[in-house]
């Protein structure tokens, strides 16, 4: 079941956001729902990222690289 909520923002900001949403073939409502889903899962994504980094902690270059070496192309 969906519920309505009321948000406040400057009129000009709302108008520009609506125009952008229309140009992207979507609505502010749809974008807000998408944002809410991402917001509630952001901690989960961060946790998964940290687990990945921890699982790769064995990887080490074995030494510290100089600034010149890091910027070589």
The 3D shape can be described as elongated
- Uncertain ranges: none
Structural class by secondary-structure content:
mainly alpha
Distance between the termini: 54 Å
Helix content: 55-70%
Note the total helix count.
3
How much strand content do the residues show? under 5%
What does this structure look like?
The chain has 73 residues and is an all-alpha fold. The chain has a domain of 26 residues. It is built from three helices and no strands. It is elongated and about 55 Å long.
What's the helix and strand layout?
Layout: H1 11-23, H2 28-55, H3 67-71
Name some characteristics of this structure.
73 residues, mainly alpha, 3 helices, single chain
